Prior knowledge:
By secondary structure, the protein is mostly helical.
Amino acid sequence: MEDIQDYNKLGGMKKELYNTSMRVFTMKEISARQNNAVMTLFRLQNYYG
């Protein structure tokens, strides 16, 4: 019985780890795109300014 509970806990932790990893990946992608947009804006300002 304890083995089943441990297995279920481990499964839940693996699922939560996967979900958290996906959130981190998504935030990194968003941040990278925002960084690219800001850098492009700076370049345009320097070019036309």
